Amino acid sequence: MAFSEPEFKPSKRRLSPMSIDITRTKDPSTAAQILSQDRTAYILGGGTGLMRRIHEGDQNVRHLVRINNLEMSEIVRLGTAIRIGSQVTMTQIMKDPYLLVLHTAAASVGAPALRNMATVGGNLFSQPPYGDITTALLSLEAQVVFMNGNRQEQQALDAFLKQTGARRLVLAIELPNSSNKTFVYHKMTRTHPRGASLITLAATFKYSAGRLSHCRIAFGGLAGRPLRAFSAERVLTGSLTVAKIDAACASLKQSIEPYSDALASGWYRMEMAQLHLRRVITKLI
């Protein structure tokens, strides 16, 4: 039996050229007003995700806003918390001695050239299989400081991620002190060491004398955004036993329905999520 390549027929459809406006400002309030008034406006940080959309011909992106603001590019200690500006890059995080807890997650984001550009703020809006560091921030109970129109507000990251339709300008991420807790971060990928993630797991624990008094578990890659495994957290809190670990893993399947794509099926993602959660918790016993 002979096989032949199908005949290539060039498309006659003409694509309309894209014109993109660019606004530069030092004032976050000005940028926030533009976002609230123009549905085609987007903040240009490192551009690792946004420029891909433009190159793919996304007609919804017509206005880029560039903010040159020093405070949004700084990492500052605020008493027991650390404030990470939304334009801080993965490379900056990896070099900061006060953010050791995030070094592994930041290092898993692409190659060095990408980490030099990718920002914390942009990562919050990345779609799977990207946005790895957001999973870590979710487990660490980060707070988001943002502009909503002309108002500055602060909200827990989990609540912020649920409001997908809102157009808000992220100013910073505030990370509470976690030095008295155990933090674990795992990234599963088919291309090592820094390929696109199948799933990511971040967990923060406080374990002593056979009991978990603090338990925060977050997954990336199971849904359209990183999410907390609240059911597993409830099961695990308190005295820790093998039976409770089994129940926590089973609760994932009952509360989360993973999606399927070219990288992996939903079934495989759930199997990996249960497997790695079991490994992480079992090491505590």
Care to give the gist of this entry?
The chain is of the alpha+beta class. The chain has helices spanning 28-37, 50-55, 90-95, 100-107, 112-115, 120-123, 132-139, 157-162, 230-236, 242-255, 266-282, and strands at residues 21-25, 41-43, 63-67, 75-78, 81-85, 143-148, 151-156, 169-175, 182-189, 197-208, 211-220, 227-228, 238-239.
Task: Quickly list its features.
32% helix, globular, 13 strands, 5-stranded antiparallel sheet, alpha+beta, Enolase-like, domain 1, Uridine Diphospho-n-acetylenolpyruvylglucosamine Reductase, domain 2, 285 residues, single chain
| Name of the CATH architecture of the largest domain | 2-Layer Sandwich
Mean pLDDT, all residues: 89
Number of domains: 3
User: Helix content range of the residues, please?
Assistant: 25-40%
The CATH class label of the largest domain is: Alpha Beta
Q: Return the CATH topology of the largest domain.
A: Uridine Diphospho-n-acetylenolpyruvylglucosamine Reductase, domain 3
Structure description:
It is a single chain. The protein is of the alpha+beta class. It folds into 3 domains: 47 residues, Uridine Diphospho-n-acetylenolpyruvylglucosamine Reductase, domain 2; 106 residues, Uridine Diphospho-n-acetylenolpyruvylglucosamine Reductase, domain 3 (2-Layer Sandwich), CATH 3.30.465; 101 residues, Enolase-like, domain 1. The protein has 11 helices and 13 strands. The strands form 3 sheets. A 5-stranded antiparallel beta sheet has the order 4-5-8-6-7. A hairpin with a 2-residue loop joins strand 10 and strand 11. Helix 9 packs antiparallel against helix 10 and helix 10 packs antiparallel against helix 11. The radius of gyration is 21 Å and the shape is globular.
